[in-house]
Structure formats: C-alpha cells, structure tokens
UniProtKB/TrEMBL annotation:
<dbReference type="InterPro" id="IPR050707">
    <property type="entry name" value="HTH_MetabolicPath_Reg"/>
</dbReference>
<keyword id="KW-0805">Transcription regulation</keyword>
<keyword id="KW-0238">DNA-binding</keyword>
<comment type="function">
    <text>May be an activator protein for the gylABX operon.</text>
</comment>
<feature type="domain" description="IclR-ED">
    <location>
        <begin position="71"/>
        <end position="250"/>
    </location>
</feature>
<keyword id="KW-0319">Glycerol metabolism</keyword>
<dbReference type="GO" id="GO:0003677">
    <property type="term" value="F:DNA binding"/>
</dbReference>
<dbReference type="InterPro" id="IPR029016">
    <property type="entry name" value="GAF-like_dom_sf"/>
</dbReference>
<dbReference type="GO" id="GO:0006071">
    <property type="term" value="P:glycerol metabolic process"/>
</dbReference>
<dbReference type="InterPro" id="IPR036390">
    <property type="entry name" value="WH_DNA-bd_sf"/>
</dbReference>
<dbReference type="InterPro" id="IPR036388">
    <property type="entry name" value="WH-like_DNA-bd_sf"/>
</dbReference>
<dbReference type="Pfam" id="PF09339">
    <property type="entry name" value="HTH_IclR"/>
</dbReference>
<dbReference type="GO" id="GO:0003700">
    <property type="term" value="F:DNA-binding transcription factor activity"/>
</dbReference>
<protein>
    <recommendedName>
        <fullName>Glycerol operon regulatory protein</fullName>
    </recommendedName>
</protein>
<dbReference type="GO" id="GO:0045892">
    <property type="term" value="P:negative regulation of DNA-templated transcription"/>
</dbReference>
<dbReference type="InterPro" id="IPR005471">
    <property type="entry name" value="Tscrpt_reg_IclR_N"/>
</dbReference>
<feature type="domain" description="HTH iclR-type">
    <location>
        <begin position="9"/>
        <end position="70"/>
    </location>
</feature>
Length: 251
C-alpha cells in the first residue's frame, strides 16, 4: 500500500514537472526534449502526456510537439486573480506612500502579465489593464524578472520573443539588454526610462522566494518620477516586495 502511494505521488510530481518543462520551453516541446530534460524514458513521458492530453491540460500539435492545454488557462486566471488580491494591501500601501501607480506582474511564457494594480490618485497617471501582457525587455517589471535569470536564459527567451520597439527609447539589441540587466542586478532594481510608454518612467524590483518569477513596479510621468523620487521609492519598494513574499509564503 505504501509503495502504491509513493508511486502515485511520484507520478503526480512528474506530471507537474512536465507542465513546467513545456512552459520553460516557451509553450511547446517535442517528446524527446521532454524526456531528455526530465531524465525519464520515452514510454514514461508518452504515458504521462497521454493522460494530460486526455484531461485537456496538454495538447498535441500538428507537428507532433506537445503544448500546454486550454484547461490551464482557467486555472491560471483564477490563481492570478487570487494572487493579485493577496498582494493588494501592499500595492495600496506603495501608492499611499509614493503617490504613483503600483503594479504586480509575473512572467508568462516569453512575456510579463500584469496580475494586480493599485492606481495613483493623480488625474494624470499610468494605467495598465490587469491581465494585460507586455514585452519583458521594455518594461521595468520585465527587466527585474529577467535580471533573476542567467544571460543564456535571457538570450533563449529573447531569441523566441524578439525585441519589438514600443518607443524610440526601447532597447534594440541583446547586448544592450544584457548590459542593462547587469546594472539592474548590481543595484537591485530595474528601470524603464520611457522604453515601454512615452513619457513614463518606472522602477521595479523582483519579489524574492516566489514559485514564479514576480516583480512589483511603481510608475508615473517623468515630470513627477525623477531622481529624487527614485531615492524615496527604492527603500519603499524593498519593503513592499519583502512583505508580499512573506504574505505569499505564509500559506
């Protein structure tokens, strides 16, 4: 009986590992790639994938690659909504202390997705739709997330996603991005200096010890968000990301 229970737990663990491997590969992968990454025999991978496909959590493409399935969309939407609600007190605190819009975002494939926002009380403010997606290389939250990865991992992601320009200030080469990320790692936060939206400056910091790469940003018009603002914002951001991490990992 114990052996059966152990086998069942191992199978469940392998299923989740497969889903994460498909996500890490950019959303689809061959069965051979999955077997090599998981260190499991092809028949085992095939059996697990067949179960995932039958339940709608994976799908086989016409080119015989395996992709994440549609049932994961609903789970992800609910999880993101709950996570956003959990972090809302900290985001509101950020707005109260700094007066500018606060955002919470996570990595989703080769993009960032915004899962929560507390708006600034100012009439002129930054607005990002919750659930909206954006490029990693041109947003402060995206760069804060990329800074947690190795240069090789960044190259792999950008190789798939490209570096589309949002503004004339958007970074245009992988070398520029890697240099920017090196600075972000050294100082502990990332900056979007009008790279995603004209006239908007954002500061972001990664949330530590999270199961998925996550970052918090504070954003506003350049006329209000300058060097003096940065000196005030960074210590507050550091407190907020620590509080969000503690609140999330308490459950």
């Amino acid at each position: 009986m114990a052996a059966e229970g152990s086998t069942g737990v191992k199978s469940v663990s392998r299923v989740f590992d497969l889903l994460e491997l498909i996500a890490d590969a950019g959303g689809d992968a061959t069965i051979s790639q999955l077997a090599a990454s998981a260190g499991l025999p092809l028949p085992t991978i095939h059996r697990l994938l067949r179960t995932l496909v039958s339940q709608g959590y994976a799908r086989q493409l016409a080119n015989r690659r395996y992709a994440l399935g549609p049932k994961l969309v609903r789970l992800g939407e609910v999880a993101n909504r709950q996570f956003g609600q959990l972090a809302m007190p900290q985001l509101k605190s950020l707005v109260q202390r700094l007066g500018e819009t606060a955002n919470l975002a996570t990595i989703d494939g080769d993009n960032v997705v915004y899962v929560s926002q507390a708006p600034s009380p100012h009439a002129m403010r930054m607005f990002t739709e919750v659930g909206g997606r954006a490029a990693l290389h041109s947003t402060s939250v995206g760069k804060a997330i990329l800074a947690q990865l190795s240069d090789d991992q960044v190259r792999e992601i950008i190789g798939r996603a490209g570096m589309p320009h949002s503004t004339e200030r958007s970074l245009s080469t992988i070398d520029e991005l890697l240099a920017d990320l090196a600075v972000s790692r050294e100082r502990g936060y990332a900056v979007d200096d009008g790279e995603h939206e004209v006239g908007v400056r954002c500061f972001a910091m990664a949330v530590p010890n999270m199961p998925v790469l996550t970052a918090v940003s504070v954003s506003g018009p350049m006329s209000r968000v300058g060097e003096d603002f940065a000196e005030q914002a960074i210590p507050v951001l550091r407190e907020v990301v620590a509080d969000i991490s503690a609140a999330t990992n308490a459950y």
